[in-house]
Specification:
single chain, alpha/beta, Metallo-beta-lactamase, Chain A, Rossmann fold, 2 domains, 7-stranded mixed sheet, 6-stranded mixed sheet, 12 helices, 23 strands, about 25% strand, elongated, binds flavin mononucleotide, binds fe (ii) ion
Length: about 400
């Protein structure tokens, strides 16, 4: 409900919505703080909408557009990214404004035809094209694979606002305001790591390409499709987080993830964590793979440069919950981790062999391994402490270089 549309700049309105009901984004990622689907309306000689919202919110969305536009019809809708969370209100929009032109690149137009059966009313743009809408000029920057092939960003040259699609986005609803200066920002920083790791994670090099492409733009505001509108000193913080994550450059710290049925592998994880602390690093995060959600584990894996994984041997292979996590890590092609492995078994251990092979496949630096037959021995306890300390040393060397 928004009977008084937010203006983020003179004549530029926020017409997005908050989703506090969806349990899992992409049916996988928990949304403890909800998510916003952001859409913006520029009211100039032309009325221009940038992206839409998820279909379930179409009515609220259309009402807000009408309020912001003062009853004028929408002339253009720019689809920066065709994914359903931003385009599934398109059919409702066309029913309301039959003359509307859909602005997109050739890939986007193909996807819109394929998903919605819409075959006319398109206005195709090429990379670098501009669109004059009155006082304002818009320019399109193609940023493929951030995180879909058709993604582009729309730069409002006149107001220096970058409509960045999913880039620089985060989970978390916009509670009472949409501008960063008016919001309590605490929750969004962690939500940005969760969003990046889970949604964008694999496409670091595409994000880096986008940074290069945008490097000459003067940007005073970033208006992405999820989360707050960023301004002022937050701009460099947000871009810094995306830059660091897309270079797969973790902060100093170690994530210890383990699976454990009866507590023996857990005891090993505790020893590694203690070793890390004794090695002089305070950023240690311990995750029980069966308790922490993989979305949260992945966020921490992207955040920190050190990763230690431990698992019991299970039916001659990896503990299945750990195997599932490895799959999620591999899907995202996480690079440059400083890695350690440990495992426990009763009769024939396979964990170290499997985790070493995984490290090799990922191209990670394997710092050390510890494998325990049955209950944890004093000798292996020391070895695990040493593994933690070696992780610290390797991570510190990495940051020095
Ligand atoms: C269902 C199941 C399958 C197992 N498969 C193997 C195995 O193939 N080889 C082995 O050496 N130990 C196997 N184990 C034993 C565990 O790896 C061993 O007890 C380990 O120390 C358990 O660690 P935890 O206390 O952290 O759960 C299996 C245990 C269970 C419950
Ligand atoms: Fe997306
Ligand atoms: Fe999105």
């Amino acid at each position: 409900m928004n009977f008084n549309p937010y203006q983020i700049a003179d004549g530029v309105f926020y017409v997005g919505v908050n989703d506090r009901q969806k349990a899992l984004f992409e049916n996988m990622i928990p949304l403890p703080n909800g998510v916003s689907y952001n859409s913006y309306l520029i009211v100039d000689e032309k009325v221009v909408l940038i992206d839409t919202v998820e279909a379930g919110y179409s009515e609220q969305f259309l009402r807000q557009i009408k309020e912001a536009a003062g009853g004028r019809p929408v002339d253009y809708v720019i689809i920066d990214h065709m994914e359903s969370d931003h385009s599934s209100s398109l059919s409702a929009l066309i029913r309301e404004f039959p003359e509307i032109r859909i602005v997109g690149n050739s890939k986007t137009i193909g996807m819109i035809e394929g998903y919605y059966g819409i075959t006319e009313g398109f206005y195709e743009v090429a990379d670098g094209d501009t669109l004059a809408i009155g006082k304002r000029l818009l320019q399109f920057y193609f940023t493929p694979m951030v995180h879909w092939p058709e993604v582009m960003m729309t730069y409002n040259v006149t107001d220096k606002i970058l409509f960045s699609a999913d880039a620089f986005g985060c989970f978390g609803t916009l509670d009472g305001a949409v501008m960063d200066v008016q919001l309590l920002l605490d929750k969004y920083w962690n939500e940005m790591y969760r969003y990046y790791a889970n949604i964008i994670g694999k496409y670091g090099s595409a994000v880096q390409q986008a940074f290069k492409k945008l490097s000459n733009l003067s940007i005073e505001m970033i208006a992405s499709t999820h989360g707050p509108v960023w301004t002022g000193e937050r701009l460099s913080k947000v871009m810094g987080i995306y830059d660091q994550l897309s270079r797969y450059e973790g902060q100093e710290g170690v994530v210890v993830v383990y699976g454990s049925m009866y507590g023996h592998t857990e005891a090993m994880a505790e020893a590694v964590a203690r070793g890390v602390i004794e090695g002089g690093m305070t950023n240690v995060v311990l995750h029980d793979v069966s308790k922490s959600h993989p979305a949260d584990i992945l966020a921490d894996i992207f955040k920190y440069s050190g990763l230690v994984i431990g698992a019991p041997t299970y039916c001659n292979g990896l503990y299945p919950e750990i195997a599932a996590l490895l799959d999620k890590i591999a899907v995202r092609s996480v690079k440059n981790r400083v890695f350690g492995a440990f495992g426990s078994f009763t009769w024939a251990g396979t964990t170290i062999k499997n985790l070493s092979a995984f490290a090799e496949k990922m191209g990670w630096n394997l710092v050390g391994t510890v494998e325990q037959k049955q209950a944890l021995s004093a000798e292996n306890y020391k070895a695990l402490l040493e593994l933690g300390k070696s992780m610290c040393l390797s991570i510190k060397q990495l940051t020095k270089n």
